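User: Show me a protein chain along with its predicted structure.
Assistant: Here is one chain, sequence first, then structure tokens.
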Amino acid sequence: MFEIAAKLKCSTHKIVYWMNKYNLQRRSLSDALYVKLNPNGDPFKITKIMNQDEKFLYGLGIGIYWGEGDRRSKNALRVANTDPRLIKVFTKFLLTICQLEKRKLIYNLICFNDSNPEEVRNYWAKELRISKEKFGKIVQIPSQGKGTYRKKSKYGVCIAIVCNMKLKTWIMDEINKIN
């Protein structure tokens, strides 16, 4: 409504008046933003008929999200791990089973403050076979002591992110089907 009002150079109240007068349904703000961010429709399409390998990948992808995924956000899928193999499998699940448009997948990195962020970015880009430009922010955190976890995470944590509330809902529904 704000954009329509701006284009017509009138108040939002006038747009609301005419929409009410002609019983025009209004979208919620989240629905309007979804359509604006995805003008060609959903950036994913779930594979319905799967061969054995795809069924296995489906199970792995759902399991990875169930075990490693962030369920706090309503709108974003986030999987974080120190193991590039896990991130690769989850990414393959998104691209193969969910047929996600590759451009919708982004990555962030978390590394220790004594790590070289460029070295960390290069490591993950090489391991995931993606461009270094696919990484958003790199967060550096203070060292966590001398434990074994520090040695395992020399290259920090990679977070695979997809911002899509419909895809998030689908994955959560699939997890909820599991008894």
